[in-house]
């Protein structure tokens, strides 16, 4: 399946079917991120049940501390 991830076309492995699986594949499951899927911000508690479909537009914003 091909999605647009942070503005770039990416082909996802067959086993990546949910937002949680996508985050895990990028080692982001434990980090503080916000995920937008097709213009909607996905609540963190719904990552496991939020399916990804071919052609989805996904933006992942990862927060970094600093000063």
Automatic annotation (TrEMBL):
It holds the Pfam family ThiS. Signal peptide: none annotated. InterPro entries: Beta-grasp_dom_sf, Mopterin_synth/thiamin_S_b, Thi_S, ThiS/MoaD-like. PANTHER family: SULFUR CARRIER PROTEIN THIS (PTHR34472:SF1). This is Sulfur carrier protein ThiS.
